[in-house]
């Protein structure tokens, strides 16, 4: 069922990658087609607080011929698209078929359920080794357990969205409408608490369960919803090879799309270097998705979170635990 058919949708604005800087496209409501270079344009510079999704990102590479970490064949980032989330656009053909912005052979990498020790840092390392990027849909509780890991995700320049507070299935009939909204809102507030900045208004429903009332609600909240085109089924995989096989069996058939993985899963962390290598070898290109504006969390949930979880205040956190270099 396509819950998004009656919803207005946002506008995808392309951004151009040049030899060292990513420039926001003209502030316009029409998508502008521009050329892009194949230069991996990437940065580990922490983004300015509260502006990580809109500020130009200084790239580490200084010219078109500069390799990524000495690797001239790195996957890199082919282009960056900026999403106007007004009205709650939906992405991923498994549930949302209105917005087909990816060109042939283009993929968006997405990672759910983190941040988590061991696996999330391994995923970050694999992405950094290829100078490429993804969207991380964080569980609110996990963000409060491991804020420093989530901050490393942000510092590496990746896009961060929400995936509920406790990974509740929002189609569960035992939950009231209010409880479902709580899951969404408290999840975003927890990610904001961990980042000390608003995350992107990007959301993925746990288990891809899309109750229509919540689809409507997210639309009213101007939050984009992400299903997928290619499910890695990594949570079922016993070996990393199965993750790779699952992805390419589907991807080679459909030719492009949003790939669903989990930075929470050990098999994914193990498989990702090979997934990225195969993407490059297969001629696939990674597209980075950024939000035009950050999510506006609701004050009552920000406050409730502070009271409920007895989280440490920001000032009690050791500075050197907040940002770490994951690769040089
Ligand atoms: Zn999940």
Blueprint of the fold:
Layout: E1 12-17, E2 22-23, E3 79-83, E4 90-91, E5 106-112, H1 119-129, E6 135-138, H2 140-145, H3 147-155, E7 159-162, H4 177-195, E8 202-203, H5 212-220, E9 224-226, E10 230-231, H6 240-254, E11 257-262, H7 266-281, E12 285-291, H8 299-309
Parallel strand pairs: 3-12, 4-9, 5-6, 5-11, 5-12, 6-7, 8-9, 10-11
Antiparallel strand pairs: 1-2, 1-3
Helix pairs in contact: 1-7, 3-4, 4-8, 6-7
This protein binds zinc ion.
Zinc ion binds at residues 112-113, 163, 167, 206.
Describe it for me?
This protein has 328 residues and is of the alpha/beta class. It has one domain (12-321): Alpha-Beta Barrel (TIM Barrel). Helices cover 29% and strands 15% of the residues. It has helices at 119-129, 140-145, 147-155, 177-195, 212-220, 240-254, 266-281, 299-309, and strands spanning 12-17, 22-23, 79-83, 90-91, 106-112, 135-138, 159-162, 202-203, 224-226, 230-231, 257-262, 285-291. Strands 1, 2, 3, 5, 6, 7, 10, 11 and 12 form a nine-stranded mixed β-sheet that branches. Strands 4-9-8 form a three-stranded parallel β-sheet, with helices on one face. α3 (147-155) packs across α4 and α6 (240-254) packs across α7 (266-281). The longest helix is centred in the middle third of the chain and has 19 residues, at 177-195. The protein binds zinc ion (ZN). Residues 112-113, 163, 167, 206 line the site of zinc ion.
Can you summarize this structure?
This protein is of the alpha/beta class and 328 residues long. The chain has helices at 119-129, 140-145, 147-155, 177-195, 212-220, 240-254, 266-281, 299-309, and strands at 12-17, 22-23, 79-83, 90-91, 106-112, 135-138, 159-162, 202-203, 224-226, 230-231, 257-262, 285-291.
């Amino acid at each position: 069922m396509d819950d998004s058919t009656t919803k207005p949708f946002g506008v995808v604005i392309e951004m151009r990658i040049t030899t060292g800087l990513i420039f926001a496209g003209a502030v316009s409501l029409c998508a502008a087609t521009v050329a892009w270079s194949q230069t991996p344009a990437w940065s580990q510079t922490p983004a300015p607080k509260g502006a990580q999704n809109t500020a130009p990102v200084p790239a580490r590479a200084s010219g078109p011929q500069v390799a990524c970490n000495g690797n001239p064949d790195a996957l890199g980032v082919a282009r960056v698209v900026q999403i106007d989330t007004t009205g709650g656009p939906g992405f991923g053909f498994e549930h949302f078929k209105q917005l087909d912005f990816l060109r042939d052979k283009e993929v968006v990498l997405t990672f759910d359920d983190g941040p988590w020790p061991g696996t999330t840092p391994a995923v970050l390392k694999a992405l950094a080794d290829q100078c490429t990027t993804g969207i991380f849909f964080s569980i609110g509780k996990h963000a409060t357990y491991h804020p420093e890991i989530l901050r490393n995700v942000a510092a590496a320049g990746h896009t961060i969205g929400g995936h509920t507070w406790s990974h509740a299935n929002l189609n569960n009939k035992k939950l009231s409408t209010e409880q479902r909204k709580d899951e969404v809102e408290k999840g975003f507030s927890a990610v904001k608490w961990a980042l000390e900045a608003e995350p992107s208004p990007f959301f993925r429903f746990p288990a891809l369960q899309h109750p229509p009332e919540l689809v409507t609600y997210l639309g009213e909240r101007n939050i984009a919803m992400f299903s997928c085109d290619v499910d890695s089924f990594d949570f079922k995989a016993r070996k990393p090879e199965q993750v790779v096989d699952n992805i390419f069996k589907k991807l080679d058939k459909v030719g492009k799309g949003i790939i669903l993985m989990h930075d929470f899963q050990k098999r994914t962390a193990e498989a990702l270097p090979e997934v990225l290598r195969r993407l490059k070898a297969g001629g696939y290109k990674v597209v980075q998705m950024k939000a035009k504006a950050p999510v506006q969390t609701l004050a009552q949930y920000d406050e409730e979170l502070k009271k409920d979880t007895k989280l440490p205040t920001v000032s009690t956190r050791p500075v050197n635990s907040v940002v770490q270099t994951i690769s040089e």
